[in-house]
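Give me the 3D structure for YD repeat-containing protein.
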Amino acid sequence: MYSEFTVPDDEEIFDIIGAWPETQESGARALTWRSGDGALVLSYEAVTRSVRILWSNTDGDSLLDVYREGATRLAFTSTPSAVGAQIDFSVGECAGVMEIDISPRIAVRDRLLFR
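Predicted structure for YD repeat-containing protein (115 residues):
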């Protein structure tokens, strides 16, 4: 069964996290955050329901590179002390969520489980 990938529009993303998504050559939208520990790139494409998380250290070495299809919702949160993202997934008989802490420190938690 097909599920739509709901994504906030650019203005809503800017209002929540203070950054504008950029368009990549592939047509995917991307947000990049840099910290003293490295960089995190979150790219997403609503039509293909796909998301990629690329986290690299300051030397450019990849710490995490996840590409997943079946995304159903992307949401951002922002408080005075933290910025984060949550991506919900539904793939066949599995459902899950990826939670990303963007600041003050980058962290990624991912769960994809049988329903």
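The first strand starts at residue 22 and ends at 23. Let me know if you want a second pass.
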